[in-house]
Amino acid sequence: MTSTVPASLTRTADGSALQAVFLDMDGTLVDTEGFWWDVEAAVFRELGHELDESWRDIVVGGPMARSAGYLIEATGADITLPELTTLLNDRFEERIDDGVPLMPGAARLLAELSEHAVPTALVSASHRRIIDRVLCSLGADHFTLTVAGDEVPRTKPHPDPYLLAARRVGADPARCAVVEDTATGVAAAEAAGCRVVAVPSLAPIAPADGRVVVGSLEEVDLRFLRALITGMD
To answer: Could you tell me which InterPro entries the record lists for this protein (predicted)?
Structure first.
């Protein structure tokens, strides 16, 4: 595959071909997947419906429109998708008003990527208003750019968010490492042609060609990510 990235990005000083690192947000960098479910359950309870716990795996990691739409259909709640989307985002913002807990290893990994000036993007299916609030806990200075789910025509599981991130940092997707926690996010990254590190949060993810599965971000560092890319050569 011919790369169109600037020569300065093609290889680092140690010969690594890693050009950029893209990270999911909810469940990957911050421990908020459970927050979303709690908010959804509370909102639907107020609407007179109890959510079935089995639906949790269906809506986790998905874009707001898909998750909210599924829950409306499953419950028959008398609320429109735009109304529910606004309500869920409002309630989630209230929930994280005092900050969000970071996943183990997240702060260390972000600091290491910043220290070595690795182009790093936050790529999330969450809306911009939510990302900007969470960045107060993560530190916006750690990211070269951020991509929100409401800023692309098609969000995860489509490849668009990761292709956009690669284009904006001037990188070849095949030379980008992606860290994700859900099957939806993994599908998006792999469809974009990126190499994937899966750190499952709520549902298991199986290893596959071009994909490494680990138990925690504590197992992921810059050397690990560089090896993920150079290992395909």
So the answer is: HAD-like_sf, HAD-SF_hydro_IA, HAD_sf, PGP-like_dom2
pTM as predicted: 0.83
Query: Is the model's pLDDT at 140 over the cut of 50?
Result: yes
Residue 100's pLDDT band (cuts 50, 70, 90): very high
Q: What's residue 86's pLDDT?
A: 93
Rounded-to-integer distance, Cα 106 and Cα 146, Å: 16
CB-CB contact of 174 with 233 (8 Å): no
Rounded CA gap, 9 and 160, in Å?
Answer: 22
Phi/psi for 230 (5° steps) reads: -65, -25
Q: Which two tokens stand for residue 201?
A: 């949060």
